[in-house]
Amino acid sequence: DQIKAAYAGGTEPDIHVMHKSMLAQFASLGALADVTDDLAGAGIDVSDWVEKAKAGVTYNGRLYGVPMDIHANLWHVNMDIMEQAGLVQDGKPVLPTSPEELLAQARLVKEKTGKNYLAADFAEFPIGVRLVLSLMWQQGANIFTPDGTATVNAPEALAAVKSITQLFDAGYADPKLNYADSEKAFLNGDAAVLVNGTWVVDSYTAQAKKPEVALKHYYVSDFPQLFHTDPATWADSHMWAIPASVKAKEPEKYKAALKFMAFLLDHDIDWARTGHLAIRKSVLASEEYKSLPHRAEYAGTAQLAHDVPQTKNYGAIQDVLNRQLQSIWLTGAAPEAALQTANDEVQDQLDK
Asked: What is this structure's pTM?
């Protein structure tokens, strides 16, 4: 919102970071500089980018930024709780492969340890939206089509929602947790699994080494496949963009901004230390990257990364989904009715 206000007021920065999910909105308005023909001259090798990262900064066949990472949902696992529940094999957690197994494992964890199986932010940020999206994609479905038709009210969406609400109904997960509380539950040893992103891997690794933190044996897993049409997990990317006005009116600043982008790409490994997936093929293949904590445990996430089709109003669409899904698990709204309302509101956004 601050960036949008800056553009509207003519005070946009010389360069800024944004999510690729917002690219279509900015690029469609002509707000961003087309950098396609200027990257090579700045020492930026586009051929070293993974294809998903390149696609994330592409709009209508042109490049409007430089990718910084791919970040995705993971399953963060407390191995001590899983061990107590008998859900560890060959040093790895045994994760569910269907909604039925998810419920059975959650029941086992509760019976053996008294702990909740799963924690996530279901009450604040759209982590719950990302969960539902992942489970819809695993069924070959999506919330809207590339031509702009909403498909939220579908059997696949209902199945995705019910695979989550079954945990709430049985008392194996708490839908009232916000982001901070879900992290607290996991770090305090009150949940076997936390659904959160790549961005916390380094932080949780450090936390697990502290004597006062209950989490001791920490494992990071790719998002499990509960439905078997397509493997998938929610993902987005951070990207750097330059306002079109800088390119048009301030050529020296534009060159400097490109130089800054090149510097950031040279340090892709440093940003990836947070837990994010690097976007340069050469970095991904390096021993330095592979030796970072837990990377081998979620090496498959880059292949699972998925997202919705490009749309100019994704921010508003995500807000709609978050509001309607929260009405299901926080206020007891009927899933079918909430999904139909969400479908209607998403279609309104697509039609704008």
From this structure: 0.96
Q: Which two tokens stand for residue 175?
A: 């839908």
Question: What pLDDT does 253 receive?
Answer: 98
What is the β-pairing status of strands 71-78 and 66-67? unpaired
Can you list the alpha helix ranges (DSSP code H) found in 57-120?
79-84, 99-113
Structure tokens belonging to residue 57: 């900064």
User: What pLDDT, on a 0 to 100 scale, did the predictor assign at position 92?
Assistant: 98
Other beta carbons within 10 angstroms of residue 213's beta carbon come to 15
User: Is 19 in a helix, a strand, or coil?
Assistant: strand
Task: Assess contact for 177 and 120: CB atoms under 8 A.
Answer: yes
Helix, strand and coil in the chain, % to nearest 5: 50, 15, 35
Per-residue model confidence as pLDDT tens digits over 207-240: 999 999 999 999 999 999 999 999 999 999 999 9
In this structure, what token pair is assigned to residue 187?
Answer: 């770090």
C-beta of residue 117 within 8 angstroms of C-beta of residue 110:
yes
Beta-ladder partners of 239: 18, 67
- Which whole-number Å values give the CA distances from 64 to 7, 112, 283, in the listed order? 16, 52, 22
Q: Kindly report the backbone phi and psi dihedral angles of residue 58, in degrees, each rounded to the nearest multiple of 5, phi listed first.
A: -105, 135
**What are the tokens at 259?**
């130089």
Cα 61 from Cα 47, distance rounded (Å): 15
Closest CA to 200 of 187, 191, 213, 189: 187
Instruction: Kindly give the parts of the chain with pLDDT less than 50.
Output: none
pLDDT at residue 1, as a whole number: 86
Q: Which of 76, 95, 78 is nearest to 189 (CA)?
A: 78
